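User: Hi! Is it possible to get a structure for several chains at once, not just one? Here's what I have:
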Amino acid sequence: MIAGTNYIGKSTRRVDGIKKVTGQAPYIAEFNPADLVHGYVINSRIAKGKITSIHREKALKVPGVREIFTHENVPLEVKIDSDYTDPLSPPGSPFRPLYDDKILYNGQPIALIVADTFETAAFAAGLVEVEYEEEDHGEVDLKKNLEQATHEDVPDPAEPRGNAEDAFEDSESKIEAEYYQPREYHNPMEPFASVASWNEEEGSFSIYDKIQGVSSSQGYIAGIFNLEKEKVRVISPFIGGAFGSGLRPQYQLFFAAMASKALKLPVKVVMTRTQMFTFGHRPACLQRVKLSADKTGKLTSIQHEAFSETSKFEKFNETIVDWSGLMYECENVKLDYQLVPLDVYTPMDMRAPGGSTGIFALECAMDELAIETGIDPLELRLINYAEKDQNENKPFSSKELKACYQRAAEKFGWQNRKPEPRSNKQGNKLVGYGMATGVWEAMQQKSSAKAILTAGGKLTVSSGTADIGTGTYTIMSQIAAEMLGISLENVEFKLGDSTLPEAPIEGGSWTASSVGSAVKLVCSKLQETIFAMAAQTNTDIFENKLIENAVFSNGEISVGNSTAIPYVEIIKAAGKKSIEVEVNSEPEDDRSNYSCYSHSCVMVEVHVDEDTGMISVPRVVNAIAGGKILNPKTAESQIIGGVAWGIGMALEEEGMMDSRNGRIMNANLAEYHVAVHADVQEIDVIFVEEQDDIVNPLGAKGLGELGIVGVASAISNALYNATGKRVRELPFTLDKVL
Amino acid sequence: MNNISFTRAENIEGAIKKANNKQGKVKFIGGGTNLLDLMKYRVENPDHLIDINELKLSKIESTEVGGLLLGATVTNADTAYHEEVEQRYPLLSKAMLAAASTQLRNMATNGGNLLQRTRCYYFYDTSTPCNKREPGSGCSALEGFNRIHAILGESEHCIASHPSDMAVALAALDATVKVTGEEEGHRSIPILEFHRLPGDTPHIETNLKDGELITGIELPKKGFPEHYAYIKVRDRPSYAFALVSVAAALELDGEEITDIRIALGGVAHKPWRKPEVEKEYYGKKASRENFEALAEKLIEGATGYGDNDFKIPLAKKTIVRALTEAIEK
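Assistant: Yes, the chains can be modeled jointly so their relative placement is included. Here is the combined structure:
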């Protein structure tokens, strides 16, 4: 079956681009149903203890204030028999806003003021006096609470192999190091927002929510209010960035829904920027790595242990240490992962969760081993190249990492690296080169999709997935247009609505792979339907023809050298207005016999001012093996975005929590530094050819996470090359290299 | 709602009269780039805002003594890119362009820049003690996060630093702040006497009196266009405040120093300068050894509070670097 209109693999502008740049793409806080009222959340100022009183009187007197909800007057129905879990709840019991007087973390939402305007609600919030009884300052410092580390309810990492401890002792070259990563906060451009409308007659909710999967919010609200899922409709058409923070429903959703049902009015709750620091975040993590090698640089042992923070009510876990058993060939491996419960909110996934953390430590350690053995860092990685996944004892579905190393090295000029630190100078600047390997799992989930082709020649494909800015609308439209052989303008892709066919929550870089496979499948079913319908009315042409002989191109079907028949005519001839098919797509069985990963090689140049320690990253090359690239334009943007974030993660990002009160002291974008334009200079993205017939029917691996993985390690390694100083604690601020 | 009056003043006399006649807290507002943020954080809670953008303070003019008068409501961007500022006072232009971001510089005014308040984390967070925000409540930064805090001239009551870049260049240039008030009429305050050290009154940051309005900043004739440097050491190359900044200006006769000015930002509650130390180097050679000795003396007595210890050696290195760059120009 050959399609004549080729879109897959071609650089294509975003189909929603015009809408976005002209302000016609509505974001959640822009929905304003009639009679809307506004909620403003008050947050706790202590980390641990209880509320002794909340004085609402003054605030209630403010004209325009409708109600103030606290744990004392919240409707009972959200306390009794309510289930607050969501599809991605980790082990433990999820946070329940306004459940009682207990304070579990600083920043905890403790009241909602509802008023006619946002400004009135925000003003009145300042008049609410809250008295607390502080139990103690709370435990918020990971390093000071390592003795609380636990394996309980923590998934075991990959099985140990060989005897890493003995091999380490017996080896000639060895390194041992500790790496630390602070809390990081997502801060997407769009703050979290929900608009909820309760329909008393129908007993149903209509909700606009910022979420990476409408099914997540739907299940959450249905569980809290004991409703059938069908009674909760969630819509989320555009998302101004989320990066994992929208994988789980956030507290503004609860507040909007609760207040709407109680007041019988539509309620909007939007978080302030400061409140964007009062829920999930990338957890602080301490890692210890021991590596050893023989004279030739062959790894003789790998030991990697990680201590990651979680809340005291949920055990949030990530895959941090397993990468160390996967990336390099080694017979002796020992991995350990523990969680340290602290008085903070439950951490959550942030771009390349676990991967960007674990690889940071492993790839810095590999560089330290390269220095120790006197082997070029790139050469050391090639010496230890893993041809199969030793964690799982499976072959890779595809792995063009060697091509990544080679192409990155060529483009970057790796051969010009001077191994001796401080030996490359440009004026007052010390120049350093560094590299790291990146990796991410290529996952696929079950997904559904529906396609409708009308007698007017328009194709609408839909799936309840999300576009978090990655280009889902665009690549799904491309796949559908190519499959059916119709122009992109005649294709519409719908997403972000819980009434659409169910799709997985948008995360893990699996949307292109999962939803893309469903879209491909539903379009091939549509091809079959068109073929069958055409064959019925054109028996002469289609006699003895199989669908494999059919060509779907330019809105027409043809077989062999026959005259092409427009779909429009086929549908009309059948006396129909449209044809419709729906499918459920699942990963193929064969996939489980393989390990499916995407890989990358990151090379960076850093400049360090010899006097001031100021660091810049003038050049990054990131070579990617990500299977079939569906849209090079959006794919490149994904990787550039990942690299830019990696630069910020390396040099700037740090949530500064004061251990005296568990409060984030830099909860704004002036003091919580992320990379600015001036930080992000030349970034070269290279996609290497990678054929993969196993990973999924599209051969695509997903690129959302991979771009950031390895960037911080490459920068750390380059800093060592530039200055001779090894920085193992993120972020690498100038005082650490001086 | 929080009732705030907002009035637009039409002339200087009117603005001052308005300020003095109002009951409650009065603030003049120019660009509002810092004031509005502080109001949102409920750190500043004025009862009255008097908009001064209509006053005739938006010009840059030559003075009779050959200097330049920068109007109080001229934006930072317009000042930095003003031809005469660029040519005669490039140190000021460079410092101003190192500040904030393009958008902020387009809004922020010269008068407001001098009155911007510290970036101390605790000052902004009303749930923590802060002597500057709430006198007598204590200083949270002493034993808290103090990486961006002062190492010189601080007190046990406050270790906040002044965030301005412009003021640092003005300090090096010996600028004068022109103010007008009801009681004392027009007066001039030398820039080094404009801002105060915290002492036991960190909430009083300048020697401006109640109801006094900054009308302009006067630059003296001498602008050091030949030998100058502004080096701003910060955590990212844009939209970040100085950890340490150095404004250096020299006049040379051959290799001999005939005039030398060094002002530091990010290290104290005000732009930090020691003219008496500078004078010791008049007539001396513009050499690295002398610069190092001078740096040592300027930073003498500096105290670190943990996170900001690195500023002490960093300030010294940056002074030497700035002076070296200045003489190489």
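Chain A has three domains: 2-24+445-586, 31-136+192-272, 285-443+592-737. The interface with chain B takes residues 45, 62, 119-120, 123, 126, 428, 611-614, 616, 651-652, 656, 658, 660-661, 663, 665-666, 668, 670-671, 673, 675-679, 733-735, 738 of chain A (CB under 8 Å).

User: Great, thank you!
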